[in-house]
Amino acid sequence: MTVYATLCTLAALAMMIAFINSKVGRMQMTIAITAGALMLSLLIVIAGKAGWFSLKSVAAEAIDRINFETFLLNGMLGFLLFAGGLGIKLPNLKAQKWEIATLALVGTLISTLLIGGVLWQFFRLIGVEFDLVYCLLFGALISPTDPIAVLAIVKKMKAPEQISVQIEGESLFNDGFGLVLFVTLFAIAFGGEAPTLAGITQLFIHEALGGILYGLAIGLLFHTLISSTDDHSMELLLTLGIPTGGYVLASALEVSGPLAMVVSGIIIGNWTRHTGMSTETRDHLDSFWELVDEFLNSVLFLLIGLAMLTFSFHQEDWILMVVSIPVVLAARYLSVRLCYLGFARFRQYNPLSVTILTWGGLRGGLALAMAMSVPSGVVVVASKGIDVREILLVMTYSVVVFSILVQGSTIAPLLNRANNWETNRDNGDSQAEVA
Predict the structure, then answer these.
(1) Contacts (Cβ under 8 Å, ≥6 apart) of 156
(2) Which residues is 379 bridged to in the sheet?
């Protein structure tokens, strides 16, 4: 089966699960697709163990043929982040720029250090020689919240505006800093050369700041192109040029494509939408990109559910999978709480903000793709052939699946309570004004 045929089959399967869910389960679509794919994976594994039929090798080969890491990082990621940027309201983003920047930078760094330190001590406790740099590498890839998962699930549940802007903005912008941390630790672990402070600074400026500047440039370019035509179809086609050619050029320039797509999406969504588009395009822009977003998300979350077919599990892996979830959640809570100790000195926040940012800080395909980029062969448990890549993959997978299925499906009550608090506060303010 060709890569194209495999992708078409997976897309059809994702649509089938989504349709069944719309008639029966009525869960949030991406959660339903992930759960359906995970159940299908478990059925294939159980059937193979019981000798009923053996499809695991065939399914695993098909998924490997797609190359999940390349497919996400060099393919659909640009579309998904551009679509996310289109929906961001710039005035809201500006009003909380310091909170978003602090969560994306300081929060990610604190979480990385906490996760790495705790896991290193745990590995020593169970007698597994797992270097601190590998623990920190896991912290760096799992600490940034995933914008795809957050926008696909949390955004659609109508969180209070203040919380919504923080969690969306953080997820869209913390990838740049998280990538610098990951690449730096990756170089220490596998590059053979210790990076210098100057090298790290240069990498951050080139990747993160370069991506932002490139995003501004390409956003302005396409704003000019879209403004120069009144053809409805051409205006929509031009928006597709940003996550296609624009994203490929960002990779060639070695700047952050994800940040560039977010910035250019914000420009098109907040400026071009109101000043450079025809009325017909303005009315259809969100519907068009929502359809693109829904389709690509359905394929991505299906792949996440099926990815377990490509892993080899050992007894030690199951222990690490169980331990990694509370460690990541605790680190997320502490990092957000520490940031809010500073925020609360200048502004009042919803009392459930920290809890929602913790439980709604979802992880998804980006973390899994980074874990898949870790090279195999660095063995840590020689008797069973368990290497660093396997350990990082299974821990990442457990956190991602828990994040999507459990956190994503149970955050609605927290959002409702937060909305009720906002309503009661507004009513109290109104009564005080009347009095």
Answers:
(1) 28
(2) 387
- Tokens 């956003």 identify what position? 219
What is the DSSP code string of 63-75? HHHH-HHHHIIII
Q: What is the pTM of this model?
A: 0.88
Virtual CA dihedral for 280, 286, 291, 295, nearest 10 degrees?
Answer: 150
Q: Which two tokens stand for residue 432?
A: 């005080």
Secondary structure (DSSP) of 21-51: HHHTT---HHHHHHHHHHHHHHHHHHHHHHT
Query: Based on the structure, what is the number of domains in the chain?
Result: 1
Give the tens place of pLDDT for each residue, 14-53: 999 989 888 887 788 888 898 888 888 888 878 777 666 6
381 forms beta bridges with: 386
The C-alpha angle with vertex 75 and arms to 72 and 79, in degrees rounded to 5, equals 100
Query: How many helices (H) and strands (E) are present in the chain, helices listed first?
Result: 24, 2
The encoded tokens of residue 351 equal 């009392």
Domain span holding position 285: 3-431
266-298 in b/e burial notation, b at 16+ Cβ within 10 A? bbbbbebbeebbeeebeeebeeebeebbebbbb
The CATH number covering residue 366 comes to: 1.20.1530.20
Q: How far is 114 from 330, CA to CA, in rounded Å? A: 9
